[in-house]
Amino acid sequence: MTSSRGAVLRGADQPYVLETVEINAPRPDEVLVRVVATGLCHTELLARKGMFGPKFLPAILGHEGAGVVEQVGSAVTAVVPGDHVVLSFDSCGQCRACARGLPTSCASFELLNLTGTRADGTGSARDADGNPLTSRWFGQSSFSEFALATARNVAKVDKGAPLELLGPLGCGVQTGAGAVLNQLRLAAGESVVIFGVGAVGLSAVLAARLSGAGEIVAVDLSPARRELALDLGATRAVDGADPDLARLLVTQGRFDASLDTTGVGTVMATAVNVLDRPGSCVLLGAGRDTLTVHPTVLSGRSVTYGFEGGSIPSIFIPRLVDLWQRGLFPFDRLIRTYPLAEINQAEADAAAGVAIKPVLLMHDHPSGSWALPRT
Ligand code: CXF
Ligand code: ZN
Fold it and tell me: How far apart are CA 158 and CA 166, in angstroms?
């Protein structure tokens, strides 16, 4: 057992509260990580709202952790204590999709990442009174000084990179960049339109620029986000509230590719309708809306949903770290840091769109040599 300070969410209308929690020792395939920093993802806001079931709370959320391996289970060979890791989504490693190297299509993706328990229904943390907590959120629950992850959801990264920065590579940044680099595989000169430029959409903008895309159009309701998208490489920015959005978008020709991060039904349909033939759309949004299009609209066009950008975390995350180190993928521009004690402010800023990607620092004084300036 390891005692840890963690942010616990006990009710949909309650703030996160810092509590002392007890984390189990690692099972054979598990990895105990001393968390340095954790990003806050939009999916955390949905978990608060009850999207993952009525029995979900109380919970330790957090699924963009980065830290140092403290202890490994007896069967773990991929990492050793002292390794620096980014925590990402979990997968079973045994289904047909995992066997084919497609962990984002794992047959147990929802079970392992969205229920907050292991596949066998157990959790891995209790509160100070010994009561169980939802504690396997994306196989990590990293709003905590220590997190129990699995060998399959840790990605070993270069020790020269700042852990204070890397957590969002585990979900939001990986999702947007992966959709472009792994799923759309944009060729140089191809055009793409990105609906919703929060952390996921802006990561897609960065990846599209890196791919040498021709036109990169960012659509968003927020003028500030549109401005940032232009600064990060979008060639055009369009107000998502424009009543004539679809026609406005195709004035210079239809798109080779489109991405939706909003999950809004009408916006997803527009993302399909503005495609060229051939054309590909990747949906990344969360929510309850459905996509409705007439079947003939899909002639010559493909639509897929992209859990985590179709990535293999142990390969894709170190690659993104390398691109960042070479100045080619400046995802740090999206980040605003907060001490863990200010998690409620971080959440409010994310919900209000004030912070694109909040990152919670577990300790006031970052452990690494690369200290993020407070922004
Ligand atoms: C989410 C995306 C929406 C469905 C649940 C999983 N991924 C990461 O936050
Ligand atoms: Zn996420």
Answer: 11
285 CA closest ligand 1 atom index? 3
> Which token pair is 262?
């909003």
CB 69 within 8 Å of CB 80: yes
Please give the structure tokens belonging to residue 330.
Answer: 């400046």
Per DSSP, 250 falls in state G
Local structure of residue 292 (DSSP, 8 states): -
pLDDT digits 0-9 by tens, 86-128:
999 999 999 999 999 999 999 999 999 999 999 999 999 999 9
For the chain, which domains are there? 2-156+330-369 (3.90.180.10), 176-307 (3.40.50.720)
Joined tokens for residue 289: 């809306």
Q: Which residues contact 326 (CB under 8 A, 6 or more apart)?
A: none
Taking 70 as the threshold, does the pLDDT of residue 365 lie above it? Answer: no
Residue 40: phi and psi, rounded to 5, are -110, 120
Pocket of ligand 1 (CB under 6 A): 41, 43, 114, 171, 286
**Ligand 1 centroid, distance to 286 Cα (angstroms):** 6
Give the pTM. 0.96
